[in-house]
Specification:
The protein contains ten helices and no strands. Helices cover 62% and strands 0% of the residues.
Length: 263
């Protein structure tokens, strides 16, 4: 799928988690719901770090472009080293390593560890990166015509304000992980979810997605999971723009309302 659809699906997924938590009697504080949805929207773009033309490659100027090239080469190297006898030869790393559950867990776990051991500046960094990505995905039309510096300032300002809100008692800095010293450990959860939602979205397209790597399926380790081919669509097609994106908006709205106990 394209960047805007990925971000919308990420935000909707976290709001759905909030609705499920409320139904189970563990309503999220509203800052956790909002910040988690924004992080998940940004994280849902991150697996495309292996694609030099993806939305994320433009988000941080030369830094993100250079990182995309490095990740593409890394992903390609891992693919060549681990491919099974039934996996085809490739010339690039797109939709390989960063599109697996292993990558999602590693990135989310790394973010949680950084939040615990890196202190406030690590938390601000995690928020900044994902809020910039959320702007690039959710407000993509405005972001395309705006200066990158303005987008970065919006991300930095929002990260500072939201971290201050979360720090207030009862607002969720210690949500889910309540032991002393585990504040903000939950930040890894929307990152894992965003990456997995991205992979599921790509699995719906004609190319599928090797989410289950390195679990072998037949003679392949990079088996492209997906529904029957007749049910798949091309990225950017009318199905994505006219059906899925409006659907994500509706699901996100309903999930958010349920999460806040409005319905």
């Amino acid at each position: 799928m394209m960047g805007p659809a990925h971000s919308l699906s990420g935000a909707a997924a976290w709001l759905g988690v909030g609705a499920a938590a409320a139904a189970a009697g563990h309503t999220m504080p509203w800052p956790v719901l909002v910040v988690g949805a924004l992080i998940c929207a940004g994280a849902a773009l991150a697996p495309d770090l292996d694609h030099k033309s993806a939305t994320i490659s433009r988000a941080f100027g030369p830094i993100s472009k250079g990182l995309c090239e490095i990740v593409d080469k890394l992903s390609y190297s891992v693919y060549k080293a681990t491919r099974g006898p039934g996996d085809p030869r490739r010339t690039g790393g797109h939709r390989t390593l960063t599109h697996t559950w292993v990558w999602a867990v590693l990135v989310g776990g790394g973010a949680s560890a950084a939040a615990i051991f890196g202190g406030r500046w690590a938390v601000l960094g995690i928020l900044f990166v994902h809020l910039v990505l959320a702007v690039e995905g959710l407000l993509w039309r405005a972001a395309r015509v705006s200066s990158d510096v303005l987008v970065w300032l919006l991300g930095a300002t929002s990260a500072w304000i939201l971290a201050g809100v979360l720090d207030q008692p009862g607002n969720g800095a210690n949500w889910f992980f309540e032991a002393p010293g585990q504040e903000y450990m939950w930040l890894g959860l929307p990152i894992v979810l965003g990456a997995l939602v991205h992979d599921i979205g790509d699995a719906l397209t004609v190319s599928g997605c090797p989410i289950l790597w390195p679990i072998p399926i037949g003679r392949r380790r990079w088996y492209p999971i997906g529904p029957p081919k007749a049910m798949r669509f091309r990225a950017g097609s009318w199905v994505e723009m006219k059906v899925l994106m409006p659907g994500f908006m509706v699901l996100g709205t309903v999930g958010g309302a349920a999460a806040l106990n409005y319905i």
